[in-house]
Amino acid sequence: MPDSQMTTSQATTGSVTTMEHEAHNPALLHHFSDAQQQKNAASLGMWLFLVTEIMFFGGMFCAYLVYRLAHFNAFAAASQQLSIKMGAFNTAVLIVSSVTVVLAVKAAEVGKRKLLVGYLVVTVLLGLTFLVVKGFEYNEKFERHHVPGATFKFTDTFDDNGKQIPVNPKEAELFFSIYFVMTGMHALHMIIGCGLFSVLAILSWKGHYTPGYFTPIENAGLYWHLVDIIWIYLFPLLYLISRHS
Amino acid sequence: MVEQQHEVEGDLTVEHEHTTHSQGFYLAIGAALLVLTATTVAAAFVNLGPFNPVIALLIATIKATLVIIFFMHVKGASEKLTGAIVVSGFFFLAILIALSLADYMTRSWR
Q: What is the complex's ipTM, to 2 decimals?
């Protein structure tokens, strides 16, 4: 008799636990006390990752600054060969994509599923537009032999108030090496971001995200904005600041 | 007692949730970023001597600040720890660049 009572009480406790589990947000993991704590932890981890990204690109920005100071004439002459039109167009594309990302987060917050998917898809398309324009730019570099390596050629001169000063092609090659590493790394981040948002668009379509839980959308958005910020600095440093000296 | 505390925290959560701004606000920030892009491109074609890089980097920093504050919701991230990590990230970046340039820019002084 006591045995059967025991079993009954255990079963009751068990079913209550199950009910509680169903009642709370299924996206809330058991080791967090509430949704806000879980969100803060995810956000903290994301910002930590973004800080490592800042340091990663920071090292390259530092290398660019040091070599620009050391080989100023060649860097200016090489920088003037980049297409400001394409660079400015891509900057605008990235800014618009940042707006669509932030609108996607807003759509997720108010639970508009189709709008969320729409903004995510537009973001991916804008990211791909950026990459295609970048591809045309790289193609132009190949055609003009501005890609570092055995076939590298650089005959342009540094314009010092009308006086044409020849530059060392080796130093110009250094500029293009840094240009390809920095824009290439940035493009790699764009490709990863496009993949990320494609997956999130599919999961959003399936209804994985609710106004109570859309942290992956927010964190992918933070990543995309950081990639945007890196381009915001790459564009003036590589394309703009050496038009006059 | 513990349960009650949870309830209170729950209420705070609801208030914290709406860290986003209105759609029109985001579009306005986006428009401001596009105008600043046009400005920096236009400024690149004007000969300002040594101030060309200064203006370009100043505009880039304004744009980056707009993105960080209004798109990345740095203020909405209620955790002070998150703020400390973001600030420390930029602090170490500043050390990296300042000390490196302090070295390379003064080598010719000998």
A: 0.83
